[in-house]
Amino acid sequence: MIGNTRITQAMKNKMAELENPFYLYDQETILGQVRRLHRDFPDFEFLYSIKTNPFLPVVKTILGEGLGLDAASLREVEIGVEYGLPKEKILYSAPGKTERDLRGAMDHAILIADSLHELELINKLAGEKGVKLGVGVRVNPDFTMDADHGAAGKFGIDEDQLFAYDFAKLPNIELIGIHVHARSQELHVEVLKKYYANMFALAQKCIDKLGMKMEFINMGGGIGVAYSTENDTDLDTAALGAESAAMLAELRQKLGGVRVIIETGRYAVCTAGYYVTRVVDVKESYGTKFVMVQSTLNGFIRPSLARLIAAYLPEGAVAKGNEPLFTKMDAFDFELLTDETASEKVNLVGNLCTGTDIMAAGITLPKAKVGDILAITKAGSYAYVLTPVQFSSQPAPGQFLLCADGSMIAE
Ligand SMILES: *Cc1c(COP(=O)(O)O)cnc(C)c1O
């Protein structure tokens, strides 16, 4: 339940004006999420993983709280620069950076090399400039969030390869930090606590084996969101913060003022976002009721993707999360803004010329009529950015930031 008339009234007003679907991001919710992280992890630094939602008013809201930027492309680095972030608050980590990417970013962000090839390329570029460049390295460690051994993957440099590498070959760079992002969407304190402990041990190992000057330990993301209203429980950030503070105090006795960084995308914005569409037709076919809304998979694809995944699952199987495209079957709530009290079982479908734009099947909704507004929750992260909005040349959804005073910022 949205249960907040400030938000639902803003939805109604904007739909009356636009007559087209849109995303609404609630600034108060974003601020609440970010401030909770700062409160619960006072001695940690946070970076906003902007790929989750690069809508500028959202980005400004978050950076305004003092977060730095986890940039995954040269353009994302540039957004940080345009906002006015200093170099040390933009960490550029992505696989497969090109020479052009590295050249464009090296003066504006801390580069995090994703491979031995990238380390060598950065060494070459730094040499051309005649500088000694401090760089981070993304490590593929000898652990994951779920196991005590490493796993093959496309990200980073295997721990063993890093320790075996002859860094004397790279005179123009100096390793100043490590980065690992094991995975997203974890809701258990114990899992993240163990992961952080592993990260601190990895940092010590890098110092011991490589003589690294450890300026930062970037532990990546992992802080999850309770997507499913019925089956998920919020991560206890206060408990994780307290456990982590104790570990950090111990680490600081050895490593002094090292920056310890956590990245977050979804936690800041997921629950602040709503996809708002409207009913354009209601019909019945062979005994099934269809409620048709405007722009489904071309407006917010993830509910339709979940249906598609479900269609290929063996009976009774549970689909594994595949972030950020698929989290779980019941990740999103559908709420019809209506005073209607009678309800019925419906299939919620879209107005596209494909049969795959099914947002939900067999759900119970209040009796819908043409013109009713339908809001979908948890649409703040990996929502607009993942959606093929050009499909069938429908108008793209708008995006708005709802401010505390009720105003809506469009850009
Ligand atoms: C996408 C990403 C994140 C953000 O993950 P969330 O689950 O949205 O918090 C953090 N770090 C890295 C390296 C990422 O690629």
TrEMBL record:
Domain Orn/DAP/Arg decarboxylase 2 C-terminal: 22-380
Gene3D superfamilies to which the protein is assigned, alphabetical: Alanine racemase, Lyase, Ornithine Decarboxylase, Chain A, domain 1
Keywords: Pyridoxal phosphate
Keyword field contains Repressor: no
Listed cofactors: pyridoxal 5'-phosphate
Pfam families: Orn_Arg_deC_N (PF02784), Orn_DAP_Arg_deC (PF00278)
Domain named Orn/DAP/Arg decarboxylase 2 N-terminal: residues: 29-269
Signal peptide: none
PANTHER family, per the entry: DIAMINOPIMELATE DECARBOXYLASE (PTHR43727), GROUP IV DECARBOXYLASE (PTHR43727:SF2)
UniProt protein name: Diaminopimelate decarboxylase
UniProt xrefs under SUPFAM superfamilies: Alanine racemase C-terminal domain-like, PLP-binding barrel
Family according to the record: Belongs to the Orn/Lys/Arg decarboxylase class-II family.
Domain of life: Bacteria
